[in-house]
Amino acid sequence: MSEKDIFVLGIETSCDETAAAIVKNGREIVANVVASQMESHQRFGGVVPEIASRHHVEQITLVLEETMKQANMNVSEIDAIAVTEGPGLVGALLIGVNAAKALAFAHRIPLVGVHHIAGHIYANQLVQDMKFPLLALVVSGGHTELIYMKEHGVFEVIGETRDDAAGEAYDKVARALQLPYPGGPHIDRLAKQGKPTIDLPRAWLEEGSYDFSFSGLKSAVINTLHNAKQRGETIQPEDMAASFQASVVEVLVGKTIQAAAHYDVKQILLAGGVAANEGLRTQLQKQVEQLPEVELVIPPLSLCTDNAAMIAAAGTVLFQQGKRATMALNANPSLLL
């Protein structure tokens, strides 16, 4: 007897993207819609929470309607609704959570709350089946974490950022180099044109630690630029971008490879917005080739940044495990994995 297909509607509004998607059996994207607010936040050089929330209010119904239209489905055909409950901007999260609750209540559909980072990890399942035990390197605007997974839905954070996440460091360094927001793609592009000739620190922290720290590196870049300006010297922005990126990538990749060997994993997953960074992808691929038993999975660029397909994929696993949220579900900006 063939099992019935499971269709999960995912909703994601944790930051500045209003997104909805429908995923079949946790692996196949049926529809995926993302409304970005990048242009609205660009002139402020970062995401303004109040503006983000207003945009979500304006967009959420349109995005949901477009998703159903793309999928050519009715709400009655949906088996569960998965929504990001945290972490993220509280006002932004509330829009998605309340839209999900309204739909679930009106149509009597089971509701599942999803952790945003779990979503990023499960974006990989839309590309390839997960093989356990695995290690996920999650690198996004506000998060830099190494997560060990023995099985579906069980996350052990073995390394996290102690100060600035890699994405934050990219944005701050981009600002110092007078590059537009978000800084990551601009630095990545500029780094390809330069040479890593500037000596910048690498924070390895104490022996055996898989934690990250990028605040010292960010300060070193700002100080180097400032001192050069005072001396009337010019630093080529391409070389600074290449030097900064080399430092970040070396630490990210180095710790990931160390942890993969220590935990004897079968797979390494790259996840989060900074996973779109070409320098990081290339270096990680090179290093993983030296671990013959380990497979590297990197999602396509469209699934690295915030989207709802990843939330639906993670939500499917929780739904199948019998996890349900009640109408008391609330936004939790500091939700732990």
From TrEMBL:
Its cofactor is Fe(2+). Keywords: Acyltransferase, Cytoplasm, Iron, Metal-binding, Transferase, tRNA processing. Its main location: cytoplasm. Its EC number is 2.3.1.234. SUPFAM superfamilies: Actin-like ATPase domain (SSF53067). Binds 1 Fe(2+) ion per subunit. It catalyses: L-threonylcarbamoyladenylate + adenosine(37) in tRNA = N(6)-L-threonylcarbamoyladenosine(37) in tRNA + AMP + H(+). Substrate binds at V138, V139, S140, G141, G142, D171, G184, D188, N277. CDD domains: ASKHA_NBD_TsaD_bac. The keyword Acetylation does not apply. It is found in: Cytoplasm. InterPro entries: ATPase_NBD (IPR043129), Gcp-like_dom (IPR000905), KAE1/TsaD (IPR017861), Peptidase_M22_CS (IPR017860), TsaD (IPR022450). One of its GO terms (molecular function) is tRNA N(6)-L-threonylcarbamoyladenine synthase activity. One of its GO terms (biological process) is tRNA threonylcarbamoyladenosine modification. Fe cation binds at H116, H120, D306. Residues 28-312 form the Gcp-like domain. It is an enzyme of class 2 (transferase). GO terms for cellular component: cytoplasm. Belongs to the KAE1 / TsaD family. PANTHER family: TRNA N6-ADENOSINE THREONYLCARBAMOYLTRANSFERASE, TRNA N6-ADENOSINE THREONYLCARBAMOYLTRANSFERASE, MITOCHONDRIAL. HAMAP family: TsaD. Required for the formation of a threonylcarbamoyl group on adenosine at position 37 (t(6)A37) in tRNAs that read codons beginning with adenine. Is involved in the transfer of the threonylcarbamoyl moiety of threonylcarbamoyl-AMP (TC-AMP) to the N6 group of A37, together with TsaE and TsaB. TsaD likely plays a direct catalytic role in this reaction. This is tRNA N6-adenosine threonylcarbamoyltransferase. It comes from Anoxybacillus thermarum.
